From TrEMBL:
<keyword id="KW-0456">Lyase</keyword>
<dbReference type="InterPro" id="IPR036849">
    <property type="entry name" value="Enolase-like_C_sf"/>
</dbReference>
<dbReference type="Pfam" id="PF02746">
    <property type="entry name" value="MR_MLE_N"/>
</dbReference>
<dbReference type="InterPro" id="IPR029065">
    <property type="entry name" value="Enolase_C-like"/>
</dbReference>
<dbReference type="Pfam" id="PF13378">
    <property type="entry name" value="MR_MLE_C"/>
</dbReference>
<dbReference type="InterPro" id="IPR029017">
    <property type="entry name" value="Enolase-like_N"/>
</dbReference>
<feature type="domain" description="Mandelate racemase/muconate lactonizing enzyme C-terminal">
    <location>
        <begin position="138"/>
        <end position="243"/>
    </location>
</feature>
<dbReference type="InterPro" id="IPR034593">
    <property type="entry name" value="DgoD-like"/>
</dbReference>
<dbReference type="InterPro" id="IPR013341">
    <property type="entry name" value="Mandelate_racemase_N_dom"/>
</dbReference>
<dbReference type="GO" id="GO:0016829">
    <property type="term" value="F:lyase activity"/>
</dbReference>
<dbReference type="InterPro" id="IPR018110">
    <property type="entry name" value="Mandel_Rmase/mucon_lact_enz_CS"/>
</dbReference>
<dbReference type="GO" id="GO:0009063">
    <property type="term" value="P:amino acid catabolic process"/>
</dbReference>
<dbReference type="InterPro" id="IPR013342">
    <property type="entry name" value="Mandelate_racemase_C"/>
</dbReference>
<protein>
    <submittedName>
        <fullName>Unannotated protein</fullName>
    </submittedName>
</protein>
Length: 394
């Protein structure tokens, strides 16, 4: 079997889908994208496919090594994201060729279902926290939490702050805590809560807020500081009893090495950024040696999520899976239109049952993808500023 051609599709609001075809009529799909840099990643995919066209797609590791290491210059978020999507599509082809799901090729499933969590409102729009009354913020969080719980989800995550100053005010600190307290009081202790700091906290601010949040028994706090400061993660971990998670902006085993040694509880590689299924699987195995679970980052589309799930089913030290597709019981929203059949992603009671279809376990609706690609997108992240007009972290 040989790879014959590929196509890329820009799908709103910020996705990039890749289709790889073979001379045996078997097609593989991947999602090679870095949010806000889809066009750049697409160019990288185009160049990297020079190493794949005309080759045997079943030689996944051989092709991965050539793409990752054979160009002299290596690594980084763009190249690793491009390789990630190609890698996903190759695993999809291999599974379909052999008639088995990808998790079978990774050693077989170690669990029968995968737990997912949902996002709730708050922290996504800086102006909302700046101009709305605290009661309005809390009302939106609770309303969103109710929607997710009605879908059967038992774990929720959100960003509890706006863009923060390096050392912010007492009022800002107290409002963050009040938001979390309100949600905890509303949902009770049977629902797990996770906070995404999104790198908005300085090392100093993170250490100030941690003690105030500890009584709320969070599942984890995600990315408390920017990835540039991973060498200082031991300071973060030692300053709180709350489990710490990070990794969505780390792209290889080498970049995870220091944070795994720091004592984090949860590693969050992104299967569309960190070298695909191949490298994410290796990151997970490395994390296991440090008693660290993985909770793959996935604020992307159904192909990326399906790739994550294949890893999740076969990974002993998996904890929980992120998704933004509105999954749960009755997941028939607009984001499902890119699948012929969305039932494999049905998540009654907050769990996706073992996926058994060959490859990534989903059937992409190519007609819907092509229609969306006629519109395309040029998505960019919001631009936030501090009170003095300088750049603030989104």
């Amino acid at each position: 079997m040989k790879v014959t051609k590929f196509e890329l599709f820009f799908v709103a609001h910020r996705w990039l889908f890749l289709k790889i075809e073979t001379d045996e009529g078997i097609t593989g799909w991947g999602e090679p994208v870095l949010e806000g840099k889809a066009l750049t990643v697409a160019a990288a995919v185009d160049e990297l496919m020079d190493h794949v066209i005309g080759r045997d797609p079943m030689q996944i590791e051989r092709l991965w090594q050539r793409m990752m290491k054979g160009g002299f210059y290596r690594g980084g978020n763009i190249l690793n994201s491009a390789i990630a999507g190609i890698d996903q599509a190759l695993w999809d082809i291999a599974g379909k060729k052999l008639g088995v799901p990808v998790h079978q090729l990774l050693g077989g499933h170690v669990r029968d279902r995968v737990r997912i969590y949902g996002h709730i409102g708050g922290g996504g729009v800086k102006e909302a926290y700046q101009h709305n009354a605290l009661e309005t913020d809390i009302g939106a969080l609770i309303e969103s939490a109710d929607i997710q719980m009605e879908r059967g989800l038992t774990a929720l995550k959100w960003a509890p702050s706006e863009g923060l100053e390096h050392i912010d005010s007492a009022e800002t600190m107290k409002n963050i805590v009040k938001r979390v307290e309100a949600v905890r009081a509303h949902v009770g202790d049977k629902i797990d809560l996770c906070l995404d700091f999104h790198g908005r906290f300085s090392l100093a601010m993170a250490r100030r807020i941690f003690p105030l949040l500890e009584p709320l028994n969070l599942m984890f706090i995600e990315e408390p500081v920017l990835p540039e400061y991973t060498e200082h993660f031991d300071l973060i971990v030692r300053s709180t009893s709350t489990p710490i998670a990070t990794g969505e902006r780390l792209f290889s085993r080498q970049e995870f090495a220091n944070v795994l040694r720091s004592g984090i509880a949860v590693a969050q590689p992104d299967v569309s950024h960190a070298g695909g299924i191949s490298e994410t699987r290796r990151i997970a195995a490395m994390a296991e040696t440090y008693n660290v679970d993985i909770a793959p980052h996935c604020p992307l589309g159904p192909i990326a999520l399906a790739s994550c799930l294949q890893v999740d089913f076969a990974t002993p030290n998996f904890q929980i899976q992120e998704q933004i597709l509105g999954l749960g019981h009755g997941n028939n929203g607009s984001l499902m239109k890119y699948l012929v059949d969305y039932s494999p992603l049905e998540a009654k009671h907050g769990y996706i049952e073992l996926m058994t279809k060959p490859g990534l376990g989903i059937d992409v609706d190519e007609a819907a993808v092509r229609e969306a690609a006629e519109v395309g997108h040029r998505w960019r992240g919001p631009e936030w500023v501090h009170r003095d007009g300088s750049l603030a972290e989104w």
